[in-house]
Amino acid sequence: xxxxxxxxxxxxxRDAIRDSTFGIVRRPTRTLLTALGIALGVxxxxxxxxxxxSARGAVSSVFNAQLATQVSFAEVGNSSSTPLLSQKSENVxxxxxxxxxxxxxxxxxxAQPISVSRSPGILPGTEGSFDFPFTVAxxxxxxxxxxxxxIGRLYDNGFETRHAMVALIGSNVADELGxxxxxxxPAIFVNSIPLTIIGIVNAVSQQNQVLDDVIVPPDxxxxxxxxxxxxxxxxxxxxxxxxxxxxxxxxxxxPDNPDAIVAQVPPDPSTLRLRIESxxxxxxxxxxLVSLAxxxxxxxxxxxxxxxxxxxxxxxxxxxxxxxxxxxxLVVIEGAMVGAVGGVLGASLGILVTALTAVAKGWTAELSWxxxxxxxxxGAFVGIIAGLYPARRASKLSPVSAxxxxx
Amino acid sequence: MTALRPSSFTINQGELVGIVGRSGSxxxxxxxxxxxxxxxxGGTYVVRGINTGSLNEIERTSLRSWHFGFVFxxxxxxxxxxxxxxxxxxLLYRGSTKHERRQRALEALDRVGMLHRKDAxxxxxxxxEKQRAAIARAISQSPQVLLCDEPTxxxxxxxxxxxxxxxxxxxxxxxxxxxxxxDQDIASKLPRLFAVxxxxxxxxxxxxxxxSERPExxxxxxxx
Lengths: 407, 224
Description:
heterodimer, A: alpha+beta, 2 domains, 12 strands, B: alpha/beta, Rossmann fold, six-stranded mixed sheet, two-stranded antiparallel sheet, 8 helices, 8 strands, 16% strand
């Protein structure tokens, strides 16, 4: 007889996986305890990713509420003497879907401030002329920029209709003029025309420069001769509508020459939030990877211990015809399975942590499906890596010593 | 240290052979060499015309798998598998299908009278039942040679007799059976004995040729 006539010992992948499953299923406590290390590591990673994504979502909401809903339109390259943007543009823009408020405003160039005098006799010692920038803003513009006053009130369309000759001043102007209250009806003189101050604007959600300005309705601006700034339409949109409104606005405002209108839209919130969260995510991911490494060492230790405990079994398998690589395969597949179990447990735990954190913080829980699906694969991969050394040790055991020492 | 001294003998297919000797005399080493679990440092061991000294690890393992079955004193049943699953393990490395393994395992359990206990876990089996399951695992492989290392060492006398009878039955089917034992009663039932003492192998067949006594006296008693 020739050795070539003897069939080679063989083990199919299917049988190897089925055989390894015995060890996993029939010893559930050991499997779960071994998988725990991997589970914690994977949970850390999934939780970190989930919390980061949820936090980014929350940051995005803030941006949406504050910045990402603000659009402005200005003229560029308008060769005509007739401005393309006017108070009527407010109504045009407001007809676009997604627009909540729109307002017309115009700022005098800083280089050409309007001379303002405060009314004499009210606050002795502060008489004189001041150079302040001047802003013309419709009531709609005030509403759009969420202007609020520390004292007094904003003007509305009624003031404009009555040509009431009123003005608002920014809080910085009030400081400079020494105006702290308006009960006495303080007035400023612009080009010798008196304007009654009805309120001090101390906060806006956009166009922050108006806090340095004297703000008047358009008609008053015309009267005092200040309508010299480039017109701007500012718009507040619904969440998520800014990009669309910015794209459609020029066509609505100037159908004949939309290129003459430029829209300023907020940056894509996703870019911003990615930038904001990236450093935090990196830090948390490093911690998660450390956890996973600890889990890997734990599974390696347990697998090594298992190899020692199963020395007799390894000897038996060798006597039954298992080649060294079959023994190694058994150990590695078991490691992979334990890792996969740990991955599933970890993914579940990570999702739970993400959800609970989101609830506690009032965020919307967000987690990419890839993170949840890839977690068991990551666990299996870590299990394989952890099983390599024990597998090598197991495959090098001689059948005789394994049978004798494993008793 | 020399475990076994040079010796030359032949075991023919279908023989029932005993290996006897004191503890540490080298009888298990001889059995391991016969079963290709161990390699001699010198000499030649030929199995069915194949010089095993020239085989690589894969070839040795394959020859072991296809020609030898093993029965151990400690049974070596896997505790997390039923008797049937343990027997099926004997055919795992043969490339046979699960269905084939199941069929042959059931036949083997039937042969050793353990079919009714096929689903029992090892922890619930008596010593005799465990050894019969282990024998079923070995014969499921249809080995040419069955190597038994103290097969009755861990079971009572009644079961011991049944095991030996079972091994004799298997031998009657043409399987070479080699039994390592230190039990004089068992040795007396075996037609040919190898006595191992201080590494020296004495073949009863040779002694009989010289009209000498059978070497049962060389059998060791368990050390008190």
